[in-house]
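re: ur question from the group chat, yeah i did fold both. here u go
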Amino acid sequence: MFIKQNSEGRIKTMPNKRIIKILLSVILCGAFTIPALAQVTPGERLGIQASPETPGAFEQVTLQLSGYGIDIDRLHTSWYVNDKLELAGIGKKKFSFTTKGVGSPSTVRVLVRSGTAGVISKTLVFSPAEVDLLWEAIDSYTPPFYRGKALATPQATISVTAIPNMTAPGKSPLGIKDVVYKWKRNFSYADFYDQSGYGNNYVFFKKDPLKKTDTITVEASSFDGTLKTVKNIDLPSYDPKVILYEHRPLEGILYEHAVGDTFTMQNKEVLISAEPYFFSVKDKDSSNISYAWLLDNKQVADTESDKKSELALRTEGGSGQARVSLRVTHVTKILQFLEQSFTINFGETSGTSFGF
């Protein structure tokens, strides 16, 4: 029974019939909102797993067929590539083929003959695409005329650039900036979320000092998603190196002959120059790098050279040996440091001393 207060303040009851009608109306309306159960069509009963999922040009692809509610092992299966029959037989649920070049798609169609469901088919189109990854340690120091690659040391800044090779059938190749790039670092999107997107074909990051190797992944795809390819590159960390050379006033630094464990002075004066390979500096005499020269474990306060990466030595008669050591340290990147030393032989007459 429904209770209602009238205008005179008195309480009166309403019949239950009206309430019942309202409740029935609500229930009937709600009944029509119950969704119908989804039905599986014959084509949806087949699943195909491709390995690799995004093959490149002239790459072998293996397809594995699976079924929903049907026993594929007992059914006749036919595989077609570009409408040409390649494999047929009972239980043929695994098939391999080789893709064509970039811009040449391969259409794979599989037919499964079932006595109850008839002929069930599934079609996949593989359009090969490729992407190359180029990396550079942009703050890694190498001396002039060095022919090798500047390596990445811990805490170095690295750039990775993607160069795609993607062509839709019958169209011109996509430009570098016409591609959507999704970048990962060590299989995570988190570090490169802001650097991913349309036209973003490069990323920057600093080498993790706690990881010996960083894995960089890029997924490059066309704007409409019909072309897609994935590429990984492993970037290991290398230790910096300090190599010592003789610096002659008229000939320059003798890069072709490094100073070994023992060095013999052929003149009364010699200038030793240090090259801090792969330290994160643009200039070896940068304020971000420090040099500590030692002679028989005693630090040399200053040198006659105006460069702190060089040490001038001069004999003042006599002969003997001395141990020359060098400690090189990056000021802000503490994992970039190294020590180098060698024994120097000098003089042939009596009396032994060095001048600096």
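okk and heres the other one u asked abt
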Amino acid sequence: MLAKSSTELVRQQNSALVLSVLRREGRLSHTQISEATGLSSATISAITADLERSAIIEKSEQQAPTGRGRPRVLFSQRRDCGYLITVIISSDSIQYSLVDYAGTLLDRFTETRPEGSREAFVAAISAGLDRTVQRADIGRNQVLLVSLSSKGLVSPSEPVLVWSPMLGSEAVDFRVALGENWGDKVVLNNETLLVAKALQQRQARGAQPGASLAAISLGHSIGLGIARTLPEKDAEISAPNFGHMLHIPGGALCRCGARGCIEAYAGFYAVLRSAFEVRADTVPAKIVPLAEVDKIAALARQGQRMAVLAFRQAGVALGNGISRLLSLYDHMSIFITGPGIRYYDLLQAGVEEGLAQTHVVRLSGMPRLEVVVDEAALVFEGHVGLAFSLIDRDIIALRTPLQAAGE
């Protein structure tokens, strides 16, 4: 029995490896899959036959460029094997995307986020999910996973939004809240964790595969996602509560209710408060329109003293926070994203000042700091990458055990 269990586990792991290669590279031949995975030709033949029999992948033919000889047989995911819905929850909107099993975006729409109670918020998401399947004319049973993301503090093991800028400490357990229609299909991740996942995927396809990195999102909130490469393990993706790390004891009031958080000095509301010399204990606004921050930025670029100081103070808070990150995790590349990057020219001197004050930077030098402009695309890429790694694992276990038992 133990031998059979071990054999089945290896078979599932190898099948997941094949699916991950197809997802990363696109349509591949038998030989290309073997080269990319390091698995033998016989093993690839058995796995692809099993996956094709289970309607998870399909074959197609590609004629040789010369038009002569036998066409190549290529394998790819069956697009109608199932569907993924991604739900990106922002401070003022909720975006729904429908993706087929091959990773193709089929539909997308955005709705205004409802104001008011937790119940209204959950009801809006439930209705949005129903609208997604109705627009595509598919059944709920064809949806393999619903992947949600939000700013704030997310449980690492359950789809529970523990704290968010809009709902505060009024937690939402999406598995319970979305009920029998959707609850058993739901996963939830911090938005900036998904950015780190996407950057790690891009890096794996580029010149620095396997390097650890951190993503910092600048905006109303300050988010952090970390992708660390550990020996003999898959990348570890996490989202420490960076924006609410302590920056100055007893300092300015944060939206979370504490005093002195990084966000209370670096979030949009913090820049507004500093620029207009508002009392540090003033209750922060939940949302500051970008147009208002743009006005402060324009004043700063003209040299207005308090506006310059507001952005520099925000940069110092970020730099100090990054230095603590490096002290805990060692040097890594830092990617800065989010709507706040439009002000990075005003933040940069403060960020470097905050970093330069610390022991770890004085010893090892400045980390690589890179601005990345396409945060929305990164969040979506992270959704797709993380969700399909879960879907592939589960679909192999559910759809192929009978074939394995007969081997």
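fwiw on the second one: The chain has 15 helices and 16 strands. The two ends are 14 Å apart (CA to CA). idk if thats what u expected
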